[in-house]
Amino acid sequence: MSWVFLRDLLSGVNKYSTGIGRIWVAVVFLFRLLVYVAAAENIWKHEHDEFECNIKQPGCENVCFDHFFPVSHIRFWALQLIMVSTPSLLVVFHVAYRENREKHHNQKLYKNPRKIDGGLLCTYLISLILKTGLEIFFLILFYKLYNGFKIPRLVKCDIKPCPNTVDCYISKPTEKMIFLCFLVATSCLCIILNLSELSYLMFKYSTKCYLKRHMKNQQ
Predict the structure, then answer these.
(1) Mean of all residue pLDDT scores within the chain
(2) Which Gene3D superfamilies match (predicted)?
């Protein structure tokens, strides 16, 4: 899979982000996207082929794998990366709209089209809420699908066409568990950064409104 489009999106978003937003972009790009492409993708590349059960009953191994891994970890994280990055497009589109509007009217309509204020502030806050919501949703979904954040060495399966309870073994469970913990931790870090940026912008906007109102009352 080519991740060039996601890299370009993150680079574009970086231009319009606050300081905390730039840290979020760095975490997503360095600690999630690069780790995913460079290491995690290879670790789970042959997960189905390396899943072994102690019985050769036709179809048994396939249904057991499907039961314990309803969605491939690697495809799940790929979808998560794409989905949590997509709300940032709202900000990019809004800035593009401002710039095109100025070009169309052939005059300066904004002090700085890329400055986070007015309608762009609302769009930015909505994108942060969506990113945070999606991160939490995917963490909960992962927990529900796999019964926790763990990679067992051995799973027991008694689903038909297996004739009885069979033992199935997952390859490289320790290595997979390390990367699972790392990816979950970076996802939690992104949630904290999004909430911090959301709080910072709301506090900054509230302070600005209060000072403006105070100055107006004094006048």
Answers:
(1) 81
(2) Gap junction channel protein cysteine-rich domain
